[in-house]
Amino acid sequence: MCGIFGYIGDKICLPYIVSGLEKLEYRGYDSAGVAYIDNEGNLEIRKVVGKVQNLKEILDLSVNSFIGIGHTRWATHGGITQQNAHPHVDCQGNIAVVHNGIIENYKELKDYLIKRGHIFRSQTDTEVVPHLLEDLIDNEGLELEYAITNIFSKLNGSFALLIMDKRRPNVLYALRKQSPLIVGFGNKENFVASDIPALGEYTDKFYYLKDNQMAKVTRDEIRIWDSNVKKYIEINPIKIPQERIRAEKNGYPHFMLKEIFEQPLVVRRIITELERDPSGSFEIKDIINCDIPWHKVEKIFIVACGTSYHAGYYTKFSWEEELPYWVEVELASQVHHRNLRIPDNTVFVTISQSGETADVISTLRKVKEKGYKVLSLVNNPQSTVARESDYFINLRAGIEIGVAATKTFMAELVYLDLLKEYIKYKLFNEKVNLEKWVLLPTYLENYLTNIKDLVFDIAKKYYNKKNFLYLARGRNFPLALEGALKLKEISYVHAEGIPAGEMKHGPIALLDPETPVFGIVYQDDTYTKMLNNLEEAKARKAPIIALGNENDRKLENLVDDLIPIPSIDPFYYPYLGTVVLQLFAYYVADLLGREIDQPRNLAKSVTVE
Ligand code: M6R
Is residue 288 classed exposed, middle or buried when 0-12, 13-18 and 19+ CB atoms within 10 A define those classes? Predict the structure, then answer.
């Protein structure tokens, strides 16, 4: 969480910093701020509560300054106030720092620094950094760069830091430990940012800092210092074509809506990227060298958070049905608190859109330490999860800007299902008929076009309700959880996904005419029991919306609003159902006038535990 951006070069810096921060706003938007060194050598700080737009309103973007750093905050330590907004400075106002992450030992450091006479102005953990540097420079006589490299060993926790000192106006320092940070190479200008979309407009050449590395960034060069070997090292920057980085709304009012409608394209891309073999098998390119002995595996342990967890949970059912494994799914944040007693022949599968979710990373490290193999699905091949896993599959969904995950969920569902087929082929030499997947993008495309108006009309009917219950059974239940999560995170309406069989054990008490039930009622093994559960809800006068098969007259007569799924192979139901759940949440949030792409209190990647 939090976005940071730095510029040094031959152009006026503030327009770059502000535009970079706008592209990083999905990481947090509680407050925003910049620090820059002007032509007279003054260190100027401007910060505001709220979004980058508020910052823009108080800034003179044309000010003569060629070096600066900026921050958009998701508050962890210290309330949402101007004082707590970054950048933070030392007592004398020489050093400015922006930070993403959590400095876990900040209390001890703060006490120590206060005893040494430092005066703190905020409640943040971050502020210890400029004071610590000041202390190392002024009281211990260290040179700036030496002091900066020194702090790797003094700070516990996670950090991406950008540091600037007005006494050295030609250099920016960027440090990374467990929080993402990327440097971008320009011509007579260089950049630093938390994520790549902020840089795509200016360069296609990047280096992802690794843990315990520091970048020394000047106008003309970027050098990387590695604290493991305590010296500058050679690096190979990577080239990423601009079209893969830049995200535009392309005429859609929100990124989320654009991303919902982009899903057919994402699936098409995934299918095209498979290496198909005329003999009836296929390879997933990214794991072509994967040497997991699938025959020996006993257990698959899927770990993820939020929407990615729902994708894993959905997958559990079909994997358990079709593969000879015991499949367990757990929230990464819960794994910490478990004493895992698991068979040696367990493969961990982690799923993460960002590849930077702190809980996923810590689980990954914990299980790797114990010697388990980890296969990950991530949408960012440069991310920590991708780099630290034994194998990873790139979700190929393209950059997702909306805080609510949509197209990456679709990509996760598709890849997890393909992975199951791939393992089946490895185990049983079963031929794979990919035709079903080949048709999926077209089904999705047609369905999105045909269903959107109906979903909008239903959203219009219910958008002012305060509580929704999403009901489903068996394999459809994770989709109910996902539908409820989508609705609550962008509309702030309370919604719960409940296994329909659990209703009578308590939640049915919630039902009344003001509490709509959203049922997922496909004609599968859950059908009859789902109908009974909806009857029970109807008897309590709850309005009922159902996602079900077209031509299902029984269901149509029972519910208030039926959103029909076409009579095609049930293989397609979860994918088509998913877009309905996404659209419903989107339209409700839009009708309520919510900030859909940047819902309150949330950030796109959750980089703190
Ligand atoms: O980047 P990740 O997939 O690891 O993120 C996990 C969750 O933070 C994420 O899915 C979150 O729940 C989304 N806001 C859901 O739309």
Answer: exposed
Query: Catalytic amino acids?
Result: 2, 604
Pairing of strands 544-549, 517-521: parallel
Whose C-alpha lies nearest to ligand 1, atom 11? 306
**What's the CA gap between 264 and 388, in Å, rounded?**
30
Angle at 330 between CA 581 and CA 518, to 5 degrees: 20
With contact defined as beta carbons under 8 Å apart, do 384 and 357 qualify? no
At 469, is the secondary structure helix, strand, or coil?
Answer: strand
**Token pair recorded at residue 371:** 């010697």
Please tell me if the CB atom of residue 383 comes closer than 6 angstroms to any atom of ligand 1.
no
Spacing, Cα 317 to ligand 1 middle (Å): 21
Coil, helix or strand at residue 570: helix
Q: How far is the CA of 406 from the centre of ligand 1 (A)?
A: 10
Using DSSP, state whether 114 is helix, strand or coil: helix
What is residue 338's predicted lDDT score, i.e. its pLDDT?
Answer: 85
What does each C-alpha distance from 311 to 175, 306, 315, 450 come to in angstroms? Answer: 34, 9, 6, 25
Is residue 474 within 8 A of residue 526, CB to CB? The reply is: yes
The predicted pLDDT at position 243 comes to: 66
Give 437 Cα–ligand 1 centroid separation in angstroms. Answer: 25
Distance 169 CA to ligand 1 centre (A): 39
Cβ neighbours of residue 115 under 8 Å, at least 6 residues apart? none
CA–CA distances in Å: residue 528 to residues 140, 151, 479, 564, 565: 75, 63, 18, 17, 17
CA Rg value for the chain:
26
Could you give the domains of the chain? 3-244 (3.60.20.10), 247-432 (3.40.50.10490), 447-609 (3.40.50.10490)
Alpha-carbon span 606 to 1, nearest angstrom: 5
Supply the pLDDT for residue 130. 98
Where helices occur in 162-278 by DSSP H, the ranges are 255-261, 263-272
Taking the CA of residue 357 as reference, the ligand 1 atom at the shortest distance is: 4
Angle at 242 between CA 181 and CA 287, to 5 degrees: 70
- pLDDT at residue 337 in the model: 87
User: What are the average pLDDT values for consecutive 10-residue runs of the chain, which has 609 residues?
Assistant: 94 97 89 96 97 95 97 92 97 97 95 97 97 96 96 93 97 94 96 92 93 97 96 93 74 95 96 85 89 95 98 97 96 89 93 94 94 96 93 95 96 97 91 88 96 98 97 97 98 97 94 97 95 96 97 96 95 97 98 93 81
Q: Is 516 in the pocket of ligand 1 (CB under 6 A)?
A: no
Which residues, 6+ apart, have CB-to-CB distance to 251 below 8 Å? none
Cβ 353 under 6 angstroms from ligand 1? yes
- For ligand 1, atom 12: residue with the closest CA: 306
Q: Answer yes or no: is the C-beta of 9 below 6 A from any ligand 1 atom.
A: no
Q: How far apart are CA 474 and CA 465, in angstroms?
A: 27
**Can you give the pLDDT at residue 349?**
98
Residue 70, beta-bridge partner list: 5, 34
The answer to whether the CB of 489 is under 6 A from ligand 1 is yes
Check residue 255 and give its pLDDT: 94
Would you say the CB of residue 307 lies under 6 angstroms from ligand 1? Answer: yes
